[in-house]
Amino acid sequence: MAAAAPASDNAYPQGASLMRSTSSDESTYILFENQTESRVKLYWLNYDGQEVAYRSIEPGRVHRQQTFMTHPWTFKLLDPGTEKRETDVVVDDRRVVFPNDDIGQRKAVLRKPSLWEWSPDNHKKHFPKKFLESTEAFLRVHHTQRRTKSAALTAEDWDGKPQVDLGVLPTELILRIIELSAPEMPIVLPPAPASPRSADA
To answer: Which of the two residues, 149 and 145, has the higher pLDDT score?
Structure first.
């Protein structure tokens, strides 16, 4: 089976070295269960950190995959014609899984990730630069209009009606507008390390 490019730190954010298999001393199994609505393709990360394509799992199906204790696995949705991302499928909010250090096999449930809920606290931590820039521009306009006479509730337009714009919106509503405009950002955690026992092998 052909191998794709090496799985870099950018592909599987972890802040550590290249994700790869290190030995084939201790055989085990991972039980993959597909709880998404699409087919999912399994990939073994080989000794060079390259993705090697393995089994495709249909929605609702289970596959028992033989592997070894130090071997990491990742997965991708197979849904041609859509704009779905690799991060649309995770196991325990992670893009890479290792076998458990327990006797028997690990059960890895493939599902859609949870989403970050926008708040002022996680605004810069988990949301993309483009959204941060557009939010900054929106707040700048709001701040400017609050400082002008045109934003006053007492001002009237040519029709004799109160003139209302961004300058008179309460802070709570401004925050709600930003929250509703925030893009969906999946929660993807760094891969958990291989078990200490297998790492020492």
So the answer is: 145
